[in-house]
Design brief:
Helix content is about 60%, strand content about 5%. By secondary structure, the protein is mainly α. The strands form 3 sheets. It has a two-stranded antiparallel ribbon. It is elongated and about 105 Å long.
């Protein structure tokens, strides 16, 4: 189906009184046409430059980690940190004699630092790392493996990687929330249609609309905090699944590795919690993605119009190679597609865990970059969404014109009769319905509806309901005001409504909540850094032993 033609936005007569911010006006006027399709304008010198050019206009983000830090903290990195912690704790517990402790610690250090040298290795099997250590300092170094197994080691490093990916996801989500709140604050008096069942229902403000999504994402932030408390518990020191005969200090291991506590039951720690905790985390990303997809679909639906009230900056669209009038919103489409990928990846974690007995590896890290990439894609999705939000250009005058082209204020006509003249709502509803039918049959817009016809229609409604006074109690001015979208929004009352002062209050509350969520994330990261420093210091103490 060919795309409908668009009237270039710069030809729209804009009403400055409808704009809250002068920069928005200049941005709208500067938008012009979509990115040119002339090959002279798409020249690129290298493959990387060509890919970057496409990514920019289509809003593409693609990577292999949620952050540079997450990428650096791979399996090998965590083998090193766990070996360091095991060395410290086993020395403290007397499992490693102090006479051997310094040499073993230096062997552990060598296994870590050799990876940065030319020809260095980053093994993904803990026994391969152990071989590097024992080759350097002898078989006594295997004392660091006392009371542990691949099972608790991998369960621990998976939890450590998941907690960081969740923090990265939380920070990306907070960036989106901040943008939504900022745009909402600028559009508390920009009136747009809201829809139910795919049909215009009532006028609201664009700020009210965006705050609905901002508040829903705030709930995801709360879910992340709650899930993090379960994610950041240590399985370390439980060996295969039933602990060992050695007195391993699990609490100390947890502390040194940045965990807030233990998964207490040793079977649960390595074999059961590895089901439900990652699934819970992935489900949060999936829930976020479903609403990201809905938001993008809503934006895209408005973009379908021949005179949309919402467009993208011209640098974020691209022209058809054949149809010059098109301004393709690849940035919207690709964000929605990435949201679908996140949902699919979360389902992969569920399916891999389904009907699998405890102790199998099928489900243990399906969310990870090496498998479904749930949070890698989730962070990319949120980065793409932030790009879309930065690129939106809203035309309040056109949005108001859209509202005034439909009868979304007819309910207010009935409510005004009830509120100001005690006319039973059903009588007012019948009157308003007949007004709408008459208008639509004759293609009359609300503000053009003949007052004399309203008087006649009300008289007919009065006869049907046997109302004694069949005169329309509204003056023509009152009738016009009742049909005004702006007046309908302004007269809303109650907590959470679209009236500008209430949206402004919700914006202020959302800013406070966002600040607290960001503080929580910062504190969680600081605790991890403090644990890292504590482990480094404790390990240095052991390493300095003879």
């Amino acid at each position: 189906m060919p795309s409908p033609q668009r009237q270039p936005l710069r030809t729209i007569t804009l009403r400055p009184t409808h704009f809250l911010l002068a920069p928005v006006v200049s941005a709208l006027l500067a938008m012009g046409q979509a990115q040119a399709a002339d090959t002279l304008d798409t020249a690129c010198k290298t493959t990387v430059e060509c890919q970057a050019q496409v990514a920019k206009i289509q809003g593409l983000v693609k990577g292999d980690a949620t952050s540079a830090l997450s990428k650096s903290q791979d399996t090998f990195y965590w083998f090193g940190r766990i070996n360091m912690a095991s060395t410290v704790v086993n020395v403290e517990q007397g499992i490693i004699p102090k006479a051997q402790a310094g040499r073993i610690a230096r062997g552990v250090e060598l296994s870590i630092t050799q990876a940065t040298a030319p020809g260095g290795k980053r093994p993904t099997d803990v026994l391969q790392v152990e071989k590097i250590i024992t080759d350097a300092v002898g078989p006594e170094a295997t004392l660091i493996h006392t009371g542990r197994s691949r099972q608790d080691i991998h369960s621990t490093l998976n939890a450590a990687q998941l907690r960081l990916e969740m923090l990265d996801f939380a920070d990306a989500l907070d960036q989106v929330r901040a943008r939504l709140i900022t745009i909402a604050q600028a559009h508390t008096a920009t009136y747009v249609p809201a829809y139910t069942n795919g049909v215009q229902a009532m006028p609201i403000s664009y700020g009210h609309y965006l705050m609905a999504f901002a508040d829903s994402f705030a709930r995801d932030s709360a879910r992340i905090r709650e899930a993090y408390a379960r994610i950041n518990l240590s399985p370390m020191g439980t060996a295969v699944l039933a602990n060992s005969s050695w007195g391993i200090n699990r609490e100390r291991l947890a502390q040194l590795l940045g965990f807030d506590g233990l998964i207490v039951n040793s079977l649960d720690a390595g074999q059961i919690s590895t089901y439900d905790i990652p699934i819970e985390a992935a489900s949060i990303a999936s829930s976020t993605a479903i609403r990201v997809g809905a938001l993008m679909q809503d934006v895209h639906t408005q973009y379908h119009q021949t005179r949309p009230w919402m467009l993208l900056a011209s640098s974020k669209t691209y022209t058809s190679s054949a149809m010059p009038q098109k301004a393709n919103p690849g940035i919207i489409q690709n964000t929605r597609a990435k949201a679908s990928d996140v949902v699919a990846s979360a389902q992969a974690s569920l399916w891999r865990a389904h009907n699998v007995t405890p102790g199998m590896i099928d489900y243990k890290n399906t969310w990870s970059p090496g498998s479904a990439k749930t949070f890698v894609q989730g962070v990319e999705m949120l980065q793409q969404l932030a790009d879309v939000l930065d690129s939106l250009r809203i035309d309040p005058a056109r949005a108001l014109d859209e509202l005034e082209s439909e009868w979304t204020t007819s309910m207010e006509l009935a409510e005004t009769l009830q509120r100001t003249h005690a006319i039973p709502f059903r009588v007012g509803h019948h009157f308003a319905s007949d007004v709408v039918v008459y208008a639509k049959e004759r293609n009359i817009r609300p503000k053009d509806f003949p007052y004399a016809e309203a008087v006649r229609i009300y008289r007919e409604a009065g006869k049907k309901y046997d109302i004694k006074d069949q005169r329309l109690p509204l003056t023509e001015k009152e009738f016009r005001r009742a049909l005004s979208p702006a007046e309908m929004v302004l007269t809303r009352t109650g907590t959470g409504g679209p009236q500008p002062q209430e949206v402004a209050r919700m914006v202020a509350a959302a800013k406070d909540t966002l600040a607290k969520d960001r503080a929580w994330s910062g504190e969680a990261r600081q605790r991890l850094l403090a644990a890292e420093a504590a482990l480094n210091a404790a390990f240095e103490g052991v390493k300095s032993l003879p």
